[in-house]
Design a protein that fits this description.
Distance between the termini: 43 Å
Strand content: 35-45%
CATH class: Mainly Beta
Largest sheet: 9 strands, antiparallel
């Protein structure tokens, strides 16, 4: 559907659809609590800022590339129906196909709180069946206001159980990666992808002095990003998720990726973000019984330190 049709069916005083960068269609939300932009390709939340914050909480690179079939650097990529590389097919896209496919808008509403909610859906089709034979419907329900709630629902339409890996690969805006810390994972086990996939245990808060790529397993804990530079805490509270991924590429890896950009202070855009991803990966992939659904839900909020 084009923006005019979408506005006619789903537009609200706080929600409008526009054609934007790369010819893609975006949903723009602006209400009393917050502002957000969502790309219909990938059901990709590009950015979100609560009105109480001067800086966005969901970060997107100034050098992000937009176009059909391209993944966007930043925002909230939807990793589904697998996380990381495909288990057997190296040619299949990393983190699944959902983040680069067109999703349908299926509903919108203004809630009594003043928040704006939009429903998006990815139905099985010939393209998805070529990479994932099971009949599964993915839905993303995004609720934008002073907080951001994201619900990723997988409905198994098949006649037997299906196994999925998934994550909301969220990029979060910070002042500087060298001073930020992530709490909430003390004592958790993780797979250290920077150190050959070794299993380790977290001790204390996570601080950053180089590349970090860790999958924390068997944890449902809320995580908090403590950011002394922007003088705020970002809270990531989740349900239906047993894995948390923490990632920063650091300088060498970021320089091999042309879409991180220079950042606001020309020190590299990678310094101004950290990924804290809620999902189900590795030990925690989910088996969804035939005819049933699984929901991964995350609420993001920010507060002054």
């Amino acid at each position: 559907m084009n923006p005019d049709d979408l506005n006619s069916r789903y537009g609200l005083p706080t929600l409008k659809f526009v054609e934007g960068a790369g010819g893609l269609v975006f949903a723009e939300v602006d209400n009393a609590g917050g502002v957000a932009t969502i790309c219909l390709q990938g059901a990709h939340i590009v950015t979100w800022r609560p009105k109480a914050q001067a800086e966005a909480v969901v970060w997107v690179s100034e050098a992000a590339k937009y176009g059909p079939g391209k993944s966007i650097r930043g925002g909230v990529p939807v990793c589904w129906p697998w996380f990381g590389p495909h288990a057997t097919e190296k040619a299949f896209p990393g983190h699944g196909f959902a983040r680069t496919m067109m999703w349908q808008v299926t509903g919108s509403e203004t809630q009594t709180s003043g928040a704006t909610r939009i429903w998006l859906m990815l139905m099985p089709n010939d393209q998805t069946h070529a990479q994932f034979a099971k009949a599964c419907r993915a839905e993303l329900i995004v609720t934008v206001g002073a907080t951001l709630q994201v619900d990723l629902m997988t409905s198994n339409l098949d006649t037997e159980a299906v196994e999925i890996g998934e994550a909301l690969h969220t990029y979060l805006r910070i002042g500087d990666i060298g001073t930020a810390r992530v709490t909430g994972l003390d004592g958790s086990s993780y797979v250290d992808k920077v150190d050959g996939g070794q299993r380790k245990q977290q001790s204390g808060a996570i601080a950053f002095s180089g590349e970090v790529d860790r999958v924390y397993v068997d944890t449902e804990s809320e995580c908090v990003i403590e950011d002394p530079d922007l003088k705020r805490r970002i809270r990531i509270a989740k349900t239906g998720s047993r894995s948390t991924v923490v990632w920063t590429p650091w300088l060498e890896k970021a320089e091999k990726m042309a879409d991180f950009g220079p950042g606001k202070h020309n020190q590299g855009g990678w310094r101004e973000m950290v990924c804290v991803e809620s999902g189900n990966a590795l030990d925690n992939v989910v088996s969804v019984p035939a005819g049933e659904s699984h929901v991964l839900s995350v609420v993001y909020s920010a507060e002054a330190m």
